[in-house]
Amino acid sequence: MYRELFSIPRRDKDREWVYFCGHSLGAQPKAVPSYVRRALEEWRWEGVGAYFSERAHWVDYADRLRAKLAPLVGADPSAIAIAHTLTTNLHLLLASFYRPTPERFMILTEAALFPTDAYALQSWAARWNYPQAIYELERLIPSTEEVIATIRRLGERLAGVWLSGVHYLTGQRMDIAAITAAAHEVGAWAGWDLAHAVGNIPLALQAWEVDFAVWCSYKYLNAGPGAVGGLYVHPRHHGQVPLLAGWWGNRLETRFLMRTTFDPAPDSRAWMHSNPSPLLLGALEASLDIFALLDLPAYYQSIQAMHRRLRAALAGLPHVELITPEEAHGAQLSFRLRLAEPHQAFKQLLTEGFFVDWREPDIIRAAPVPLYNLPEEIDQFADAVAALAR
Fold first, then answer.
1. Spatial separation of the C-alpha atoms in residues 145 and 286, rounded to whole Å
2. Model confidence over 76-123: pLDDT tens digits?
3. Pairing label, strands 333-337, 134-136
4. SS3 state at 349
5. Residues 254 and 340 in one domain
């Protein structure tokens, strides 16, 4: 129903990919050029006046988009800011929340942490001179019970928990609510990387009492390469934790009085540093307007159904090892090929028109997305994977 709203990437002039890489970069909504063109025209005709003109009013463009994004993260719009990139937002929030003491300095995180998260955590551990602060879970695919047991074992040494809502490599979906509650029980904060979760699984950040979270918008949110990211801070922390100040985080009512004393916005916008590009916001809005058409619970069910269809089709193949947990996932299915030359087999899938990706050392990731993928594409892909062993 919604596939016609997207441009499916093409292998060549006449052939589309079977594009299963929405976990890496979502397909482009066909409306994106018109939304971006609108911003270009506003710039062309109004110049800097577009920041305050009645038609464009760029000065609060990002603020206005929060209401469209809020249902996808399960939070009041005031708890969201649309700005920067995931890594920048993570640094900004660690500056606020990671305040170690000799007694409480450890950060619990996952095995095979995405590199940018690892770099950020390591940077702040080094900044505070706690180089041994990062504690990784032992197993690549831990159970919720294992995570909670580790939190309780670390206890009063634990400053915070930093995990992915959906793991980038394995596709495992974490129990955000239960793990957040366990962190709070021992006096630690809980922060979440939602890069592979937002637009992919149901989220209720505010109800789950999550302390903070960050995400990018170019995967399941389809906002384009290098898209503007987002951050969430629970309202109980607004005005209560230190932060690194920037001009765009100043209250809008006093921002252009050009005072040198920071007057923070009363909500999560206080963590903003610079004005987001209206061009990038336009691309994001084009996608959010498609999500606004969806019955979100039904959409998330369709994601689960597509995943199960792919899982069922691959599960019986002797040369396929499924990695993503059957009971905890979103769209993505990660698997290994038990073949003599698995990377060559992966290249063969590309040659045959199936756009999946490879992550070292030996994992293939595929994510059918109901917005623009079809059930028959799953069946075709499964047939191609089966044929690799012949």
1. 40
2. 999 999 999 999 999 999 999 999 999 999 999 999 999 999 999 999
3. unpaired
4. helix
5. no
